[in-house]
Design a protein that fits this description.
The structure is a single chain. The protein is built from 9 helices and 10 strands. The N and C termini lie far apart (39 Å). It is globular, with a radius of gyration of 19 Å. The chain has 2 domains: 165 residues, P-loop containing nucleotide triphosphate hydrolases (Rossmann fold); 80 residues, no CATH class. The protein is α/β, with parallel strands linked by helices and 251 residues long. It has a 6-stranded mixed sheet with strand order 6-7-8-3-9-10, sandwiched between helices. The structure holds adenosine-5'-triphosphate and magnesium ion (MG). Magnesium ion binds next to helix 1.
């Protein structure tokens, strides 16, 4: 078996006596798509924070490309290819969709503080912006201000902005939260259409949406990884049905 791209070994994130993440062990292969399910407070977002370095693990190891990154800063991890979706609060509402993407491209690039760009650098930036617009179905909205597009499109833009760093692993924390049924369909299409080479971890409360997008599912409960399996195994797992779907086992 080839080594996983990302590996968590007995990772814990503790807030005082609370073990928000407790002995979590999981792996992600290159190009794999995994969903994390779990009730509110299960530790899903905290697990993402341990991967990005926003809240470093209290114990255990985070390994990327067989190298220990448990103590690396969020910036170093981002440079190594780990990205998460930006929050809507990170968008500039008075700028256009395209301008937001350009800023995201520059903010993460090596040209961050330089005023002048070579033609080549400008060309690369333009290609990155075009590719993100295409992937997130935003070409038709590129010249509109963020405040003029719908909430669903703003969430597509968040995703587009996270793609500008050309990540290898993308962490999506509830990308469809708050979307209308029609907007959910578009978001699912956008996620499904992302490059196969991009590894994804998706946190999503809409189980049908999540199970339709991934190769494997990890269920968390009270900080621990409880069950892991293929989407069909998870759908039919009595324990998962009881905890996540609210169905009694005998139903
Ligand atoms: N910075 C923090 N300080 C103290 N407790 C925290 C902190 N962040 C999270 N927690 C607690 O850790 C637990 C896990 O929270 P987390 O946000 O990871 O859950 P979640 O699975 O993402 O839930 P949701 O589905 O509601 O987003 C919760 O009990 C939460 O209150
Ligand atoms: Mg959360």
């Amino acid at each position: 078996m080839t080594s996983p791209l990302l590996e968590l070994k007995s990772v814990g994130v503790h807030f005082g006596a609370l073990k928000a993440v407790d002995q979590a062990t999981l792996h992600l292969a290159a190009g794999e798509r995994v969903a994390i399910l779990g009730p509110n407070g299960a530790g899903k977002t905290t697990l993402f924070n341990a991967i990005t370095g926003m809240t470093p693990a209290s114990c255990g190891q985070v390994i990327l490309d067989q190298k220990d990154i448990t103590r690396s800063s969020p910036e170093v991890r981002a440079q190594k290819g780990i990205a998460r979706t930006f929050q809507i609060t990170n968008l500039f509402f008075g700028l256009s969709v395209e301008e937001n993407l350009l800023l995201a491209t520059r903010g993460l690039g090596r040209t961050k503080f330089s005023m002048w760009r070579t033609d080549r650098a400008l060309g690369i930036e333009r290609d990155i912006v075009e590719s993100a617009l295409d992937k997130c179905h935003l070409q038709a909205k590129r010249h509109l201000l963020v405040k003029e597009i719908s909430y669903g499109e703003q969430r597509q833009l968040e995703l587009a902005m996270s793609l500008t760093s050309s990540p290898r692993i993308l962490l999506l924390d509830e990308p469809a939260a708050g979307l209308s049924p029609a907007e959910r369909v578009i978001m699912a299409e956008v996620i499904r259409g992302l490059p196969q080479s991009l590894s994804l971890i998706l946190i999503e409360h809409d189980i049908d949406l999540a199970l339709g997008l991934v190769d494997r599912v990890i269920c968390m409960y009270q900080g621990t990884v409880l069950v892991e399996g293929k989407p069909d195994e998870i759908r039919n797992n009595p324990l998962v049905q009881e905890i996540y779907l609210g169905k009694p086992r005998h139903a």
